[in-house]
Design brief:
This protein is mainly alpha-helical and 378 residues long. It folds into three domains: 24-173, Hypothetical protein af1432 (Orthogonal Bundle); 184-310, Hypothetical protein af1432; 311-376, no CATH class. It has 18 helices and no strands. The chain has helices spanning 27-36, 39-43, 62-80, 84-93, 102-112, 121-132, 146-154, 165-173, 184-207, 213-216, 222-232, 238-268, 273-277, 288-306, 309-331, 338-346, 350-362, 366-376. α3 crosses α9.
Length: 378
Amino acid sequence: MTAPYACQPEESRGRHWPERMSTFRSPWQRDRDRIIHSSAFRRLKHKTQVFVEHEGDYYRTRLTHTIEVAQVARTIAGVLGLNADLAETVALAHDLGHPPFGHTGEDALAALMEPYGGFDHNAQALRIVTKLERHYADFDGLNLTWESLEGIAKHNGPVTGPLPYALADVNAEWDLELHTNASAEAQVAAVADDVAYNHHDLHDGLRAGLFTEEDLSQLPVVGEAFAEVDALHPGLDPMRRRHEALRRVFGVMVEDVIAVAQNRLTSLQPQSAQDIRDMDGPIIRFSKPLYQNLKAIKLFLFQRMYRAPTVVVERQRVTEMLNGLFPLYLNDPSKMPEHWFDAAKAAGDETGRARVILDYVAGMTDRFAIAEAERLLK
């Protein structure tokens, strides 16, 4: 039984291209399944989270990160009486638009695309699910419901200011009400993203040797977690100690989000999903004390992991690859596969051609981008 402020399947605004209702699945179960079976979802297996995909088998990839986000989103949504299928759908789709090499790749493509309408991975995810997945007889894209598209567009909050062209194009076809909050389910997916990466980046950074457990003992929340494990399990094997401590950090974040949401929902008494959208700010968020503690953890990760010397060297290397490949394809689209070459020729002006090339490059996995750079740039 879902709460009155949850998105209700029978009240969905439907799909851009009308379809017969499924006999066995709700609209958002169907959206979820289409995402899981999409080409873009499969490619997340070989896309960077922090470490480039070939650097080690144990590090999170964009796919394993996405699965972790979906698990957290279902848990929180279920406790709060929200529609867990919609929360999971937005979580599974939230990173579909990420290019190779993670945020480094996004930064590089954003700079390259500045003259042609910009680049943003959330906007690209929308472009993928509305245009670029081409499997169905009756439409391009996955023909997701309005609520799923809304969640992808604004799970991080209302979207204001100049829009990346990919988002502007989708919004022109179907108004996603970008000025309002997203549904509570989409907000859950956004917070689940924070929970997942704050947890697993600590784990991956330790495995990579970028910092030690002793370094983490100085951080809020994390230090207390290690102290609790040491008190309960003195002399525990180091790997088990690490896991036990970080699972407690994970639990602190999830329980904090749930407690804050329950308090706010009780206080504000929303009676519909639209009440959530119309609120002055998100209903799903961390408490202020934990938010401040997480800022300290994120600063530590930024300094010791995201900008670690070895990571910086790799960031420079992959940026050079994209900076080489993009103008190469722009000047000579015949270097791309035939159907992409045809699309670039049909695009008309340079802006249109650049956007076709962006779709091609952004869709690459790490390993394919590296192989193409070695083939074409040597």
